[in-house]
Amino acid sequence: MTSATPVRIIDGKAAAVRVRAEVKAAVALHTAAGRRAPGLATVLVGDDPASHVYVKNKRKQAAECGLISAHHELPSTTTTAELLAVVSKLNDDGAVDGILVQLPLPKHIDEHAVLVALDPQKDVDGFHPDNVARLTMGLAGGFVPCTPLGCLRLLDDEKELQLRGARAVVVGRSNIVGKPMASLLLGRDCTVTIAHSKTKDLAGVCRQADVLVAAIGRAQMIGAGFIKPGAIVIDVGINRLPEIDGRPGKLVGDVDWAAIEGVAAAATPVPGGVGPMTIAMLLQNTLTSYVRRLGIEH
Question: Is residue 2 part of a domain?
């Protein structure tokens, strides 16, 4: 360790409040000018408790920002064809600017077919292949998945961090976080490495990073031996530790916060880091879709 200096907290809650305030102010300006409010449609299939909580929070925050939230809740017995019919109606609905199909879907539903069926211009989750291609190719006009977009916003708020030329390591290769995060960092002229569970000398690779994004889904895996002194650490992981005396285990990230004290310069906590930014960026993406579709200034 270079010193006992505490890791500075990158406050995702505060950043999310700022993003939501920006969205709310923009919506208020548009509605004051006599335009309709932006519309966000959420689609939830099945009874997964976590998914119900996520969608409830998304709808609540959308309403607080002045968006019109239309919810479609379908039983777990819903077929792929039935879900595709719902998506088709939302694609054709002129009052809907963003469509969010909450994942994961029940195993019997063809998730890829559903994502491909979305209108790319309403795909505010950024999962449609057209939006993935635009991000990968560095083309404007698409949507970026909300979690990596929120991570980038947090990095942009780090005023002393110069992303151009920085060495970045993304631990995790998922389509939802790892791959789009790497594309975003490449777009900011970082030198990017994607590492994963099969990477040889994973700790050594991570120690090269000026910016380390942990999205591997393993509780407190990233310790002091993974961190370059002075690095910025973005912890995307959300993991629950085992029960203790019948009580739910603590919620932790992929980073062992206690272990990186005195090594990392700054890091996002779990909870309160990346999580709040995901919903905030969903609202921002919906606003972006709205102004594009109406052909007005943001």
Answer: no
What would the pLDDT profile of 77-87 be if each residue is shown by its tens digit?
A: 999 999 999 99
**pLDDT per position as a tens digit, 27-69:** 999 999 999 999 999 999 999 998 999 999 999 999 999 999 9
Catalytic residue among 97, 119, 123, 125: 125
CATH number of the domain at 106, please.
3.40.50.10860
**Pair (155, 47) in one structural domain:** no
Q: In degrees, to the nearest 5, what angle opens at C-alpha 111 toward C-alphas 107 and 112?
A: 140
Do both 263 and 211 map to the same domain? yes
- Chain-centroid distance of CA 212 in Å reads 16
139: tokens are: 């083309």
* CATH of residue 217: 3.40.50.720
Q: Evaluate whether residue 6 is within a structural domain.
A: no
Rounded to two decimals, what is the model's pTM?
A: 0.94
Q: Is position 129 within any domain?
A: no
Residue 30, domain member (yes or no): no
Cβ neighbours for 56, distance < 8 A, ≥ 6 positions apart: none
- Give catalytic status of residue 58 as yes or no: yes
Give the number of domains in the chain: 2
Active site residue 102: yes
Residue 142 phi/psi, 5-degree rounding, is: -105, -170
